[in-house]
Amino acid sequence: MSQPPPPRTSSTIPPILQQTSRLDSPENPKITMSEEEIEVVQQGKGVIYKAGYRIPLIRLRFNDLCSDGSEVVFNSGLNLHDVLVDAVVGVLTALYTPENAPKNVRSVTFIVRSMDGVAYTTGMEIDDDHKEIHFSTDYIAGVHQRSHGKQDRQEILGVIRHEMVHCFQYNAFGGANGGLIEGIADWVRFKGGFIPPHWHRGEGDEWDNGYEKTAYFLLWLERQYGPETVPRINGWMKNRRYSDKLFIDLFGEEPCELFKKYKKWCEENQDEEDSAVICGAGGDESSPEEVSGEPSSQNGDDHSYVEVSRPHEDSSVSEVKLVARDRLCKLTYDGTGSFKRFLNSFEGLIEVLDSKMSDKERKLLLVTALRGNPLSWLDNIDPEDELEYSEMKVILEANTAVDS
Ligand SMILES: [Zn+2]
Protein backbone atom coordinates (compact mmCIF):
# COMPACT_ATOMS: atom_id res chain seq x y z
CA MET A 1 0.00 0.00 0.00
CA SER A 2 1.23 3.45 -0.70
CA GLN A 3 1.79 5.88 2.11
CA PRO A 4 -0.69 8.69 2.61
CA PRO A 5 0.44 11.95 1.06
CA PRO A 6 2.29 14.31 3.40
CA PRO A 7 0.14 17.03 4.96
CA ARG A 8 0.07 20.23 2.92
CA THR A 9 2.07 22.64 4.96
CA SER A 10 2.66 26.19 3.98
CA SER A 11 6.27 25.36 3.16
CA THR A 12 5.11 23.16 0.24
CA ILE A 13 3.12 26.01 -1.31
CA PRO A 14 5.12 28.46 -3.43
CA PRO A 15 5.04 32.04 -2.08
CA ILE A 16 3.15 33.30 -5.11
CA LEU A 17 0.28 30.91 -4.33
CA GLN A 18 0.33 31.68 -0.61
CA GLN A 19 -0.35 35.33 -1.24
CA THR A 20 -3.45 34.56 -3.27
CA SER A 21 -4.79 32.10 -0.67
CA ARG A 22 -8.40 32.79 0.24
CA LEU A 23 -8.23 30.53 3.32
CA ASP A 24 -8.60 32.80 6.28
CA SER A 25 -8.64 30.37 9.24
CA PRO A 26 -6.15 30.77 12.15
CA GLU A 27 -4.09 27.89 10.68
CA ASN A 28 -4.07 29.63 7.33
CA PRO A 29 -3.67 33.30 8.14
CA LYS A 30 -4.28 35.61 5.19
CA ILE A 31 -0.95 36.74 3.80
CA THR A 32 -1.11 40.06 2.07
CA MET A 33 1.51 41.47 -0.24
CA SER A 34 1.81 44.93 -1.62
CA GLU A 35 1.73 45.49 -5.36
CA GLU A 36 5.50 46.09 -5.38
CA GLU A 37 6.22 42.85 -3.53
CA ILE A 38 4.13 40.87 -6.00
CA GLU A 39 5.98 42.45 -8.89
CA VAL A 40 9.33 41.56 -7.33
CA VAL A 41 8.24 37.93 -6.99
CA GLN A 42 7.13 37.90 -10.61
CA GLN A 43 10.33 39.52 -11.79
CA GLY A 44 12.16 36.68 -10.05
CA LYS A 45 10.11 34.38 -12.29
CA GLY A 46 11.36 36.07 -15.42
CA VAL A 47 8.69 38.71 -16.03
CA ILE A 48 10.12 41.54 -18.06
CA TYR A 49 9.16 45.18 -18.36
CA LYS A 50 9.60 47.45 -21.33
CA ALA A 51 8.81 51.16 -21.42
CA GLY A 52 7.13 50.62 -18.05
CA TYR A 53 4.75 47.97 -19.40
CA ARG A 54 4.73 44.40 -18.17
CA ILE A 55 5.44 41.98 -21.01
CA PRO A 56 3.68 38.62 -20.60
CA LEU A 57 5.33 35.33 -21.41
CA ILE A 58 5.62 35.18 -25.20
CA ARG A 59 5.76 31.86 -26.96
CA LEU A 60 6.26 30.90 -30.59
CA ARG A 61 5.11 27.79 -32.45
CA PHE A 62 5.47 26.77 -36.07
CA ASN A 63 3.30 23.76 -36.90
CA ASP A 64 5.14 23.07 -40.15
CA LEU A 65 8.58 24.59 -40.61
CA CYS A 66 8.76 23.32 -44.19
CA SER A 67 5.57 24.97 -45.45
CA ASP A 68 5.85 27.79 -47.99
CA GLY A 69 4.30 30.24 -45.54
CA SER A 70 6.77 29.40 -42.75
CA GLU A 71 9.56 29.98 -45.23
CA VAL A 72 8.12 33.40 -46.08
CA VAL A 73 8.11 34.33 -42.39
CA PHE A 74 11.73 33.21 -41.94
CA ASN A 75 12.93 34.80 -45.16
CA SER A 76 11.26 38.11 -44.28
CA GLY A 77 14.27 38.83 -42.09
CA LEU A 78 12.00 39.85 -39.21
CA ASN A 79 13.27 39.14 -35.73
CA LEU A 80 10.10 37.62 -34.28
CA HIS A 81 11.21 38.21 -30.71
CA ASP A 82 11.49 41.94 -31.33
CA VAL A 83 8.36 42.04 -33.47
CA LEU A 84 6.19 40.37 -30.82
CA VAL A 85 7.59 42.37 -27.88
CA ASP A 86 7.25 45.59 -29.89
CA ALA A 87 3.68 44.64 -30.74
CA VAL A 88 2.84 44.25 -27.03
CA VAL A 89 4.45 47.59 -26.19
CA GLY A 90 2.87 49.28 -29.23
CA VAL A 91 -0.61 48.08 -28.29
CA LEU A 92 -0.26 48.96 -24.61
CA THR A 93 1.18 52.39 -25.42
CA ALA A 94 -1.65 53.15 -27.83
CA LEU A 95 -4.45 52.16 -25.43
CA TYR A 96 -3.09 52.49 -21.89
CA THR A 97 -0.62 54.06 -19.52
CA PRO A 98 1.77 51.80 -17.59
CA GLU A 99 -0.49 52.39 -14.56
CA ASN A 100 -3.80 51.35 -16.07
CA ALA A 101 -2.62 48.67 -18.52
CA PRO A 102 -4.39 45.35 -17.91
CA LYS A 103 -2.25 42.85 -16.04
CA ASN A 104 -4.37 39.76 -16.53
CA VAL A 105 -2.72 38.53 -19.75
CA ARG A 106 -0.26 35.88 -18.62
CA SER A 107 0.99 34.60 -21.95
CA VAL A 108 0.68 35.19 -25.68
CA THR A 109 1.43 32.28 -28.00
CA PHE A 110 2.04 33.09 -31.67
CA ILE A 111 1.09 30.03 -33.70
CA VAL A 112 2.05 29.87 -37.37
CA ARG A 113 0.03 27.18 -39.09
CA SER A 114 -1.96 26.18 -42.15
CA MET A 115 -5.58 27.35 -41.94
CA ASP A 116 -8.30 29.30 -43.74
CA GLY A 117 -8.43 33.07 -43.44
CA VAL A 118 -5.68 35.41 -42.30
CA ALA A 119 -5.35 35.24 -38.53
CA TYR A 120 -7.38 35.23 -35.35
CA THR A 121 -6.87 35.54 -31.62
CA THR A 122 -8.45 33.51 -28.90
CA GLY A 123 -8.03 32.55 -25.28
CA MET A 124 -6.87 29.08 -24.36
CA GLU A 125 -9.44 26.56 -23.22
CA ILE A 126 -8.10 26.33 -19.68
CA ASP A 127 -7.69 30.02 -19.07
CA ASP A 128 -8.70 33.05 -21.12
CA ASP A 129 -5.71 34.96 -19.75
CA HIS A 130 -3.48 32.82 -21.94
CA LYS A 131 -3.89 34.17 -25.47
CA GLU A 132 -3.20 32.48 -28.78
CA ILE A 133 -2.64 34.32 -32.05
CA HIS A 134 -3.11 31.98 -35.00
CA PHE A 135 -1.47 33.14 -38.22
CA SER A 136 -2.08 31.43 -41.54
CA THR A 137 0.87 30.12 -43.55
CA ASP A 138 -1.43 29.73 -46.56
CA TYR A 139 -2.35 33.40 -46.38
CA ILE A 140 1.18 34.75 -46.09
CA ALA A 141 2.38 32.41 -48.85
CA GLY A 142 -0.35 33.93 -51.05
CA VAL A 143 0.69 37.47 -50.15
CA HIS A 144 4.27 36.59 -51.02
CA GLN A 145 3.28 35.20 -54.39
CA ARG A 146 1.01 38.11 -55.35
CA SER A 147 3.40 40.83 -54.18
CA HIS A 148 6.59 39.08 -55.29
CA GLY A 149 7.76 39.29 -51.70
CA LYS A 150 7.43 43.06 -51.47
CA GLN A 151 4.53 43.05 -49.04
CA ASP A 152 5.62 40.18 -46.77
CA ARG A 153 7.15 42.19 -43.93
CA GLN A 154 4.51 44.89 -43.81
CA GLU A 155 1.72 42.33 -43.79
CA ILE A 156 3.30 40.14 -41.09
CA LEU A 157 3.93 43.20 -38.91
CA GLY A 158 0.46 44.61 -39.52
CA VAL A 159 -1.42 41.38 -38.86
CA ILE A 160 0.57 40.74 -35.67
CA ARG A 161 -0.13 44.28 -34.44
CA HIS A 162 -3.84 43.92 -35.21
CA GLU A 163 -4.14 40.55 -33.47
CA MET A 164 -2.10 41.70 -30.48
CA VAL A 165 -4.76 44.37 -29.86
CA HIS A 166 -7.32 41.60 -29.36
CA CYS A 167 -5.14 40.17 -26.58
CA PHE A 168 -5.29 43.39 -24.55
CA GLN A 169 -8.35 45.43 -25.53
CA TYR A 170 -11.54 45.58 -23.45
CA ASN A 171 -14.67 44.16 -25.04
CA ALA A 172 -17.56 44.98 -22.70
CA PHE A 173 -17.62 41.44 -21.25
CA GLY A 174 -17.47 39.96 -24.72
CA GLY A 175 -20.55 41.86 -25.90
CA ALA A 176 -18.92 44.82 -27.65
CA ASN A 177 -19.86 45.86 -31.16
CA GLY A 178 -17.67 43.66 -33.39
CA GLY A 179 -17.07 46.46 -35.89
CA LEU A 180 -15.76 48.69 -33.12
CA ILE A 181 -13.47 45.94 -31.78
CA GLU A 182 -11.99 45.37 -35.25
CA GLY A 183 -11.83 49.12 -35.88
CA ILE A 184 -9.78 49.69 -32.73
CA ALA A 185 -7.43 46.85 -33.77
CA ASP A 186 -6.84 48.46 -37.17
CA TRP A 187 -6.57 51.92 -35.56
CA VAL A 188 -3.63 50.60 -33.50
CA ARG A 189 -2.21 48.98 -36.65
CA PHE A 190 -2.46 52.35 -38.40
CA LYS A 191 -0.72 54.02 -35.45
CA GLY A 192 2.11 51.53 -35.80
CA GLY A 193 2.50 52.67 -39.41
CA PHE A 194 1.63 49.27 -40.92
CA ILE A 195 -0.83 50.64 -43.46
CA PRO A 196 -1.67 48.39 -46.41
CA PRO A 197 -2.01 50.09 -49.81
CA HIS A 198 -5.66 49.11 -50.15
CA TRP A 199 -6.69 51.15 -47.08
CA HIS A 200 -8.46 54.40 -47.96
CA ARG A 201 -10.10 56.99 -45.78
CA GLY A 202 -13.79 57.76 -46.17
CA GLU A 203 -14.95 54.29 -47.19
CA GLY A 204 -17.89 52.44 -45.67
CA ASP A 205 -21.49 53.44 -45.13
CA GLU A 206 -21.86 52.63 -41.43
CA TRP A 207 -19.65 53.68 -38.54
CA ASP A 208 -19.27 50.04 -37.47
CA ASN A 209 -18.31 48.48 -40.80
CA GLY A 210 -15.21 47.44 -38.91
CA TYR A 211 -11.52 47.09 -39.73
CA GLU A 212 -9.92 50.05 -41.49
CA LYS A 213 -13.29 51.60 -42.33
CA THR A 214 -13.99 52.09 -38.62
CA ALA A 215 -10.30 52.78 -37.93
CA TYR A 216 -10.41 55.88 -40.16
CA PHE A 217 -13.59 57.01 -38.40
CA LEU A 218 -11.72 56.65 -35.07
CA LEU A 219 -8.82 58.68 -36.49
CA TRP A 220 -11.26 61.45 -37.32
CA LEU A 221 -12.83 61.27 -33.85
CA GLU A 222 -9.33 61.59 -32.45
CA ARG A 223 -8.81 64.75 -34.49
CA GLN A 224 -11.99 66.22 -33.00
CA TYR A 225 -11.67 65.07 -29.41
CA GLY A 226 -7.95 64.67 -28.76
CA PRO A 227 -5.36 61.92 -28.39
CA GLU A 228 -7.15 60.18 -25.51
CA THR A 229 -10.20 59.46 -27.65
CA VAL A 230 -9.61 55.80 -28.49
CA PRO A 231 -8.13 54.90 -25.08
CA ARG A 232 -11.32 56.38 -23.59
CA ILE A 233 -13.55 54.34 -25.90
CA ASN A 234 -11.59 51.22 -24.97
CA GLY A 235 -11.67 52.12 -21.27
CA TRP A 236 -15.44 52.66 -21.35
CA MET A 237 -15.82 49.00 -22.32
CA LYS A 238 -13.86 47.74 -19.32
CA ASN A 239 -16.72 47.47 -16.85
CA ARG A 240 -19.86 48.11 -18.88
CA ARG A 241 -22.24 46.15 -21.06
CA TYR A 242 -22.02 47.49 -24.59
CA SER A 243 -24.49 49.96 -26.04
CA ASP A 244 -24.14 52.90 -28.44
CA LYS A 245 -24.59 55.05 -25.34
CA LEU A 246 -20.80 54.86 -25.23
CA PHE A 247 -20.67 57.61 -27.86
CA ILE A 248 -23.23 59.78 -26.10
CA ASP A 249 -21.33 59.43 -22.82
CA LEU A 250 -17.99 60.35 -24.39
CA PHE A 251 -18.89 62.65 -27.28
CA GLY A 252 -22.51 63.68 -26.67
CA GLU A 253 -23.80 62.25 -29.95
CA GLU A 254 -25.04 59.03 -31.52
CA PRO A 255 -22.32 57.23 -33.51
CA CYS A 256 -24.32 57.46 -36.75
CA GLU A 257 -24.53 61.26 -36.35
CA LEU A 258 -20.80 61.45 -35.75
CA PHE A 259 -20.23 59.23 -38.76
CA LYS A 260 -22.25 61.59 -40.97
CA LYS A 261 -19.99 64.44 -39.86
CA TYR A 262 -16.94 62.31 -40.58
CA LYS A 263 -18.13 61.50 -44.09
CA LYS A 264 -18.83 65.17 -44.76
CA TRP A 265 -15.38 66.09 -43.46
CA CYS A 266 -13.79 63.45 -45.73
CA GLU A 267 -15.49 65.00 -48.76
CA GLU A 268 -14.29 68.47 -47.82
CA ASN A 269 -10.73 67.40 -46.97
CA GLN A 270 -9.84 64.90 -49.63
CA ASP A 271 -6.27 66.13 -49.94
CA GLU A 272 -5.44 66.07 -46.26
CA GLU A 273 -3.46 63.05 -45.14
CA ASP A 274 -3.85 61.10 -41.93
CA SER A 275 -0.14 60.38 -41.77
CA ALA A 276 0.37 63.42 -39.53
CA VAL A 277 -1.75 61.70 -36.92
CA ILE A 278 0.66 58.76 -36.73
CA CYS A 279 3.40 60.82 -35.16
CA GLY A 280 1.04 62.80 -32.96
CA ALA A 281 -0.07 60.37 -30.28
CA GLY A 282 0.04 56.75 -29.21
CA GLY A 283 1.82 54.36 -31.48
CA ASP A 284 5.15 52.71 -31.15
CA GLU A 285 8.21 54.52 -29.94
CA SER A 286 10.14 53.01 -32.82
CA SER A 287 9.14 53.64 -36.40
CA PRO A 288 7.90 50.58 -38.26
CA GLU A 289 11.03 50.16 -40.32
CA GLU A 290 13.10 49.97 -37.16
CA VAL A 291 11.14 47.10 -35.69
CA SER A 292 13.23 44.40 -37.29
CA GLY A 293 16.51 46.26 -37.26
CA GLU A 294 16.58 46.27 -41.04
CA PRO A 295 15.59 49.26 -43.15
CA SER A 296 12.40 48.82 -45.13
CA SER A 297 12.46 49.49 -48.82
CA GLN A 298 8.69 50.02 -48.76
CA ASN A 299 8.75 53.26 -46.85
CA GLY A 300 7.21 56.14 -48.74
CA ASP A 301 6.92 54.13 -51.92
CA ASP A 302 3.35 53.00 -52.27
CA HIS A 303 3.92 51.74 -55.78
CA SER A 304 6.28 49.07 -54.54
CA TYR A 305 3.31 47.31 -52.99
CA VAL A 306 1.11 44.95 -54.88
CA GLU A 307 -2.41 45.02 -53.61
CA VAL A 308 -3.61 41.79 -52.08
CA SER A 309 -6.08 40.52 -54.63
CA ARG A 310 -8.25 38.79 -52.03
CA PRO A 311 -10.88 41.35 -51.00
CA HIS A 312 -10.36 42.54 -47.47
CA GLU A 313 -13.98 41.85 -46.58
CA ASP A 314 -13.38 38.15 -47.17
CA SER A 315 -10.62 38.05 -44.61
CA SER A 316 -12.75 39.90 -42.05
CA VAL A 317 -15.55 37.40 -42.41
CA SER A 318 -13.06 34.59 -42.07
CA GLU A 319 -11.58 35.96 -38.87
CA VAL A 320 -14.93 36.06 -37.10
CA LYS A 321 -15.81 32.58 -38.34
CA LEU A 322 -12.45 31.18 -37.37
CA VAL A 323 -12.82 32.50 -33.84
CA ALA A 324 -16.36 31.08 -33.67
CA ARG A 325 -15.17 27.68 -34.91
CA ASP A 326 -12.34 27.67 -32.41
CA ARG A 327 -14.68 28.61 -29.55
CA LEU A 328 -17.20 25.98 -30.61
CA CYS A 329 -14.49 23.30 -30.63
CA LYS A 330 -13.61 24.24 -27.08
CA LEU A 331 -17.17 24.71 -25.82
CA THR A 332 -18.30 21.93 -23.50
CA TYR A 333 -20.90 21.57 -20.79
CA ASP A 334 -19.82 19.41 -17.87
CA GLY A 335 -23.13 19.24 -16.04
CA THR A 336 -22.37 22.04 -13.58
CA GLY A 337 -23.21 25.73 -13.89
CA SER A 338 -25.85 27.33 -16.03
CA PHE A 339 -27.04 25.19 -18.93
CA LYS A 340 -28.91 28.15 -20.34
CA ARG A 341 -25.68 30.15 -20.57
CA PHE A 342 -23.99 27.22 -22.28
CA LEU A 343 -26.86 26.95 -24.76
CA ASN A 344 -26.81 30.70 -25.46
CA SER A 345 -23.10 30.51 -26.26
CA PHE A 346 -23.65 27.43 -28.41
CA GLU A 347 -26.44 28.99 -30.45
CA GLY A 348 -24.60 32.30 -30.75
CA LEU A 349 -21.59 30.54 -32.24
CA ILE A 350 -23.75 28.52 -34.64
CA GLU A 351 -25.40 31.76 -35.74
CA VAL A 352 -21.97 33.25 -36.59
CA LEU A 353 -20.73 30.09 -38.29
CA ASP A 354 -23.77 29.26 -40.37
CA SER A 355 -27.17 30.68 -39.48
CA LYS A 356 -28.80 28.35 -42.03
CA MET A 357 -27.27 25.20 -40.52
CA SER A 358 -29.58 22.20 -40.68
CA ASP A 359 -31.25 20.74 -37.59
CA LYS A 360 -29.29 17.53 -38.00
CA GLU A 361 -25.94 19.33 -38.01
CA ARG A 362 -26.97 21.41 -34.99
CA LYS A 363 -27.88 18.25 -33.10
CA LEU A 364 -24.58 16.61 -33.97
CA LEU A 365 -22.60 19.62 -32.81
CA LEU A 366 -24.64 19.94 -29.63
CA VAL A 367 -24.12 16.30 -28.71
CA THR A 368 -20.41 16.72 -29.47
CA ALA A 369 -20.22 19.71 -27.12
CA LEU A 370 -21.98 17.68 -24.43
CA ARG A 371 -19.60 14.74 -24.78
CA GLY A 372 -17.88 13.92 -21.52
CA ASN A 373 -20.92 15.06 -19.61
CA PRO A 374 -21.33 12.75 -16.62
CA LEU A 375 -25.11 12.74 -16.96
CA SER A 376 -26.10 9.30 -18.22
CA TRP A 377 -29.38 10.39 -19.82
CA LEU A 378 -27.30 11.90 -22.59
CA ASP A 379 -26.68 8.41 -23.93
CA ASN A 380 -30.35 8.26 -24.82
CA ILE A 381 -30.05 11.14 -27.25
CA ASP A 382 -29.13 10.01 -30.70
CA PRO A 383 -28.30 12.75 -33.22
CA GLU A 384 -29.60 10.50 -36.00
CA ASP A 385 -33.06 9.94 -34.57
CA GLU A 386 -36.24 11.83 -35.38
CA LEU A 387 -36.02 14.29 -32.49
CA GLU A 388 -36.16 17.89 -33.65
CA TYR A 389 -33.37 20.17 -32.45
CA SER A 390 -35.92 22.27 -30.55
CA GLU A 391 -37.37 19.15 -28.85
CA MET A 392 -33.90 18.06 -27.89
CA LYS A 393 -33.26 21.44 -26.27
CA VAL A 394 -36.41 21.08 -24.15
CA ILE A 395 -35.30 17.64 -22.89
CA LEU A 396 -31.83 18.93 -22.11
CA GLU A 397 -33.14 21.95 -20.24
CA ALA A 398 -35.50 19.76 -18.19
CA ASN A 399 -32.61 17.48 -17.28
CA THR A 400 -30.25 20.18 -16.09
CA ALA A 401 -31.56 20.94 -12.64
CA VAL A 402 -28.51 23.03 -11.71
CA ASP A 403 -29.57 25.70 -14.19
CA SER A 404 -29.75 29.16 -12.72
ZN1 LIG B 1 -9.39 41.34 -35.64
UniProtKB/TrEMBL annotation:
<protein>
    <recommendedName>
        <fullName>Plant basic secretory protein</fullName>
    </recommendedName>
</protein>
<feature type="region of interest" description="Disordered">
    <location>
        <begin position="278"/>
        <end position="313"/>
    </location>
</feature>
<feature type="compositionally biased region" description="Basic and acidic residues">
    <location>
        <begin position="300"/>
        <end position="313"/>
    </location>
</feature>
<feature type="region of interest" description="Disordered">
    <location>
        <begin position="1"/>
        <end position="29"/>
    </location>
</feature>
<dbReference type="InterPro" id="IPR007541">
    <property type="entry name" value="Uncharacterised_BSP"/>
</dbReference>
<dbReference type="Pfam" id="PF04450">
    <property type="entry name" value="BSP"/>
</dbReference>
